[in-house]
Amino acid sequence: MDRQAWIAITLCVIAFFGLQVYNAKHAPPPRVQAAASPEASPTAESTAAAPSASVAPAPAASATPSPAESVPAFTEKSETLRNSDVEFRLTNRGGAISEVVLLNHTAENGQRVVLNSVDRPPIGAIIEQPEAVALPEFVIARQADGSVQFERKTPEGVTVRKKFFLPPSTEKKDNYLAEMDVDFRNDGAQAYKSAGYFITLGSTRPIHPKDMPSYTRLAWCVEGKAGGIDVNWFAAQNYPLVGVQKRAAQPLYREKVNGAEWAGMTNQFFTMLITPLSAKAAELWARPFDIKQDGAANLLGIEGAMGMPGFQIEPGQSTSLRFQLYAGPKLYGRLAKLQHDEAEIMNFGMWKLVSQFLLNFMNLIYSFVGNYAVAIFLLTACVKGVLWPLQNKANKSMRKMSALAPKMQELKAKYKDDPTKMNQEVMKLYKQHGVNPVGGCLPMMIQIPIFFGLFSMLGQAAELRNASFLWVHDLSQPDTVAHIPGLGWPINILPLIMGATNLWLMRMTPKTGDSTQQRVMMFMPLIFLFFCYNFAAALALYYTTQNLFTILQLYQNRKQPVPVLEKVAPAGKKLRKGRP
Fold first, then answer.
1. Which of 101, 247, 368, 540 is geometrically suited to a Cys-Cys bond with 494, CB 3.0 to 4.6 A?
2. Contact 480, 371 (CB under 8 A)
């Protein structure tokens, strides 16, 4: 890249992360409704939130106990649903899923990745209000077809029957999918009216202690567009610079929505989504909780629920509802095949199209080579191959600019007291010699969306988890090999190599501008290294590879003849052969 590209990309990186920090701390608050404090529910390690229908208090007849009701003590019983990829652990406590074990994904402690926690509300429990959860006992039984059924009869004579099952092989869309069917049957003498209810969605927490807070989120989708809040939303928010409080810390989040297609909890690489198939959700609810760690600062997780619209059942009648559950890694290729815009959980932002293309292309290459590091290298080569002709023109323009530097210095000295005249003469000089001062900008303009598209994509690509390369054990994380004794600072090799190639590239780039500008430019690689130091190793690998290709291209360009400064004929006037 040329110096203009370095300036632009460095400033964009600074602005991008400044905007991320600002949005995380100063996001405009949605409408928040009064509710019980977080202490009302038991503590736990992780949570899940979902859209919740705007629900008024239920009338006397209720299929679930109200917060004021007491639930007698009972012995917890469990059953499991399992295939080759996932194990759903079901409990009679609320008739729901207590944990989801991903059988082919390993956590940092060497154990299998587990979504939700037994200490948090289970996934798929039916409750009246999520602020104070009272989970009743259900009768649990495994059916002959392999499904697990829960049943409970309320004091009002309403029988609630829930059935969890894995889709049959003839209908199977994905191994990480399960379904929950709910039947309400009114065996009482009076009509049962429900103003609404909530479906709990479990919990989520950070995968790594230093994960960005924006990864631990409640997410939902309305009309094909994803929304969400992260753990930073609950903290007090201040106006920047002046320090004046914008709003106080919030104990919980509650927001009405216009028909959410799905909602769920997500962290950097895994998600738990519930999609109502019979009706759409109308309200969102979430609450943070502390995750205690030995010898480390506490982390925050989120739990939540999805509210559904109410219904009425006449005596002797029943109504049925269906829900689809996805619990697994955020694999874009698999999520995109589902029918309710579940792939929007990837949260690629404004670089969505670029991120999707690069991710699909990287996975296509991986299907041939079988190694993600090699796939990233070949992806970089393809991107560089497309930009190669444009970069050749940019390098040629820079060499001309470098050859014009002495003349430009003369003009600056001659018209130092008249900046307007100096700029006019400089532009005239460019025009006389056919030099485009922004000739190196086009490759830079293309590289900016590619860089940020890769940043958004590599930050959530579950495919890269535990993918190794030489000394790198996980391409989705920094390639820390050690820490500086006494300081605890990580030593990340790939970003250091990237910084070295940046300096090498800067020294090879034709010099433009005055000596002060050239000295300032030498700090750009260091600034870039500072911002990229703790990024995923995959991003550092991409950028290092791109630098090496660019260095190779500059060496090739250097072998070409030095540009000769000749005045070009004005437009519309061509010199005839043999005539002056």
1. 540
2. no
